[in-house]
What does this fold into?
Amino acid sequence: MSTATVDATGPASDGGTNTGVGARLAALANGLIIPVLALLTALVVGGLVIVFSDPDTLDEWGSFFGDPLGALEASWDIVYDSYRALWNSSLGSSRGLSRTLVEATPLALAGLSVAFAFRAGLFNIGAAGQIVIGATCAGWVGFTFDLPTAVHLPLAVLAGFAGGAAWGGIAGVLKARTGAHEVITTIMLNYISYRLLDYALRSDAFQPAGRDDLISKPVADSARLPEVSFGEITVHAGVFVALVAAVGVWYLLERTTVGFSLRSVGANPNAARYAGMSVAAMYVLAMLLAGGLAGLAGTMNILGRPSFSLTGGYYSFIGFDAIAVALLGRANPGGVLGAAFLFGVLRAGSTGMQAATSTPVDIIVVIQALIILFVAAPALVRSIYRIKAGRGTSQNFTTSWGA
Amino acid sequence: MKVELRGITKRFPGVVACNGVDLSVESGEVHALLGENGAGKSTLMNILFGLYTADEGEVLLDDSPQVCHSPSDAIGAGVGMVHQHFMLVPVFTVAENVMLGIEPTGALGTIDRDEARRRVVELSDRYGLAVDPDATVEDLPVGVQQRVEILKALYRDARCLILDEPTAVLTPPEIDELMEIVRQLADGGRSVIFITHKLREVARIADRITVLRTGEVVGTTTPGESDEQALATMMVGHEVQLLVDKTAPDPGAAVLAVHDLVVDDERGHRVVDRVSLDVRAGEIVAVAGVQGNGQSELVEALCGLRPVQAGSVRLDGADVTGRSPRQMYDAGLAHVPEDRQRDGLIGSFPVASNLVLNQMRSRPFSRRGRIDRRAVRRHAAQLVEDFDVRTPSIDTAASTLSGGNQQKVIIAREFVHAERLLVLSQPTRGLDVGSIQYIHRRIVAKRDEGVAVLLNSSELDEVLALADRIAVVYRGRLVGVVDRADASRELIGLLMAGAVDEAAAVEATGDEEVTVT
Amino acid sequence: MTTVLQDPPAPLPDDTPLVADRPATRRRVGFGIATIVLGLITLVAFGLGSESGLDATFVFSRASDAVQIPDLTIPARWTGIVLGLVIIAGGILLALGVLGDRIYLVFGVALALFIVALLAWAARGADVSIIGLLDGTLFRATPLALGAFAGLLCERAGVVNIAIEGMLLTAAFVAALTASAADNTWVGLGGGIAAGALLGAFLGVLSIKYQVDQIIGGTVINIFALGITSYLGARVLSEYPDLNQPGAFRAFGIPGLERLPLVGPLLFDNTIYVFLMFALVIGLWWALFRTRWGLRVRAVGEHPRAADTVGINVLRTRYRSVMLGGAIAGLGGTWFTLDATGSFNENMTAGKGFIALAALIFGRWHPVGAFVAALVFAFSEELQTRLALLDTPIPSDFLLMTPYIVTIIVVAGLVGRSRAPAADGEPYVVE
It folds into this structure.
């Protein structure tokens, strides 16, 4: 029942003869094969789902024996159209690319949150709730006060971070002091946070005057994230926050003593204890930081995206996406950024896809679930494609109900 | 039942565990399979028991060839095995464990508990293996658990019984009992194969002895034809020095002073009961006793890993009772833990990280929270050389190292830090003779440097070889602190079993003045 | 140097257990203080803070009962005051040690009295049907208990099942679809059970064959279930609404027995789900602890290698348990669409699968314990609904949080003492 992740203070050894750029590239390629194949397979299976759930295409299949080519053509058409619409509204245009980056930002931060917790041996399913609380706190600071931007914006961001950190910290403290498994406590905290949000949205402090629906006041201009443009691509500053956060997480984990302790506790809590590290303190710290990162994710959304208000539906699937992103990125910051970008593509493209072909956006969730499935079960992918198990890095995040 | 193995060969990736092994055991014979850790004894018996399949060779039972693909086949053929780590479900009762897999049932698959109980009682009476069929196994002492394992085999009509290192967890009196049971079973016509790495036991019980070394048979002999020295040489392949070269100790002031220490475990049981002990600089004090009598908990409490209920611990005069592991470390304590893979190393981390596992927060390895990777690597390279750690590089994951080298990593790490007090728990468990000798030499060297050494070991040979003074623990209490000069195997063995009066009698027959408190 | 042999002050006979003084005092005092706090809340909020002159009426009977138990009318304010004082007294006695070590008993009674006072306060000036309350509890407990039983079977065999939520959701969807298509609720029931078993097999393959981390595998199934049911719900069920009208099972009573007072309506007049739930509690208990099958399943969950060496097929046992567990979860899932609401809505399970898991842990991996735990959670849910109806000053959002908060308290307070099957969560490697 121990937790193990892959760690290397130096390059992974392959027998001592060949450490260096060549070996590192090989290891990188090896590490990428599975995720790439996972993505491909997921798209294929997703395509099948699209085909067999579209009424018109199903009709064609009904008359398969009369006109086999017609059925195949119709299937190809709908899949192609769907995916092309997906491409167009995500990568194929500068507006699409902007949208992709904006979608990817909270995913990256939330993915970092989950990945960070993984490295410490914790499964942070509570990212969703931490996002909500973070967004709520940031939003409240954003529309309650009226301060100059230089003060207001950082204050709102800080509030978002602190809110998420506190929410995550609850689960961390519970785990540290009572051994309560974070999977259950964070899921429960998620549901509690949704109800808190509902309550907040109904309260006078949050509701704009004269309106009755579940939407909050908009954040003041002075608290909004500034827009940044490269050529035709326009994003909000949150994109940089995500990048900085990724670098920060990497540095913390790989280059500091605190990060070393966190990773040790995640890899082998017993040995960490014997080595004088405080497992309980690390759990709390990990959940605080993870919660803060997720809180930032929510903050970026509310301070950066139009409407700039909290809505009841804030708890969309983003929390679960974060888990997928962390798994796909193999719990390291670079991978998380890549995975977040991919998922940003899917999200940005899905609305365009639905508009163009009436394929519902939920297919994205199916594809994402498939991706996670294949990433979490590398053996499954290998047996599909008959790849031999090379010197891969295998990861296990086993935690069970006991200590 | 006559058992014969001919030409057994078994390969695992990268290693040949058994190479053309021949072995034959007659009915009614007790045959000892002798070899050091890693020689292939367990692998060979696992093949006989159906847990592995041989790559080459054959197994003949009563002169007819048998192929066993699983333990059920082996059991069906009459082979029973008592494993070193018991195959008993701790939360089940004795009867449930014994009948598992062949339960007597009534309607709709309901278990007939009365029938099962009856059969267990009958068997235990017949063979003199007293057990309570309704007792929960995890509450039983280890010696009784072993009896349950034997009963399991007998319940299934085993005509060949394999015992894998059965004495590792027994007190000397329990070992005597076991020897009698083995003799009785053999006299009843069964063949018994007794796996061990302890030379002494072999002489007591075996009719014949086969010595294995790195997967091959070195020779088969009888206790009459060879002595311990000859057997040891066969086991290792060259002349073995059975004793470590040790000069007399020159102890200084007390470094560790433990006074009336009381420790309770998580369930509220008192596992250390008012223990007082001193360890002086430049001496090795061994805590001896059968496993499970509180030594592990004592050591854990001293290192700050277990809360202390009462009593005091002083290090160099300073009170360190109940401090955290970090604080104990900073006060000058170095600790080699009992379970190297679980507590001593992080298997997925590289060797370099493991060599500084508990020192990362100190200079020169980090400054103000930032790790100095070059310093870490330099230090690691130095240690690997100094302590002869065989590893492809300092970046290899520690889990890929052999047991002996893993232990060397831990030893290197702790010995470098040990300047006042060094605590070692079972430091050579599961290691080959070469590693054992190396580690013993380094422990003595540390002692000669003036470090106080506390050794917790359940291997009596190791204790007698290394210790200057021996503190024997029985059921949580210190029943004697014996000078090495006065210590005999018999005396220590009696103390380990709690037979204090008999021990006093043995002591009294010596010439020394004895103080009885 | 001299040898020192210590003469033990009192030689211990060999079978003396090494038990020392227990640190139970701290726990007892802690619970005592908690009880006092509970009593103070009762006294202040439900007693002194309540308006005087209002009565609460507890109704115990239905019109159809053979024997009518009279209604109980009590003054709300006084009830609060009196019960509050009683609870405080009990807490003081417990902390002082007068009541011995009966911590759970005292705290349990205090909790029960607290709830009575709460009900009296909430229902002041109105009626409260106790039968309705308990009936509602049984109703809500069904998916929780069935989910817990599913988890029980899996975990007793050594497979952690976090995917109960996904199994419930998928089964609910499949049940709605198939029942509507075939215009027959029994078909829906069968379809849901099959869906659950299939997901169980999938979890089995992931964790046993491919040795995927079981928590990740379970989470994947949950995400997948949510996605595919939402997608197909939007695609198929919205386009063809008559595929989302499965009909519902109706309650039926056992003639004669159902007219017994109190017990009758609760035990003998229910939908098939509640009857099945009762049957499963008894059935699972008997099967796990009295039959050969149960012994072997438990052996596999505690010490798979020991089971292997006596000839039990560990992997096959695990597969079977996981599939059977999945089937039970499937049954529980159909409750949502074939009993509770009569149609499928996106994410309608809303975390019940995880509460079921908490019930399993609370119930110490025992069928009876899990059932009792499910009842406790269900009661808190039912209470919360009633309070919302009774127009209390607590905002409904906070009341809705109750089951989740209770879950956290339970898991935090009890997990440390609960013991999962020893090999739970560890993949078994056959050599």
Residues 1-19, 389-400 of chain A have pLDDT under 50 and may be disordered. The first strand of chain A starts at residue 227 and ends at 230.
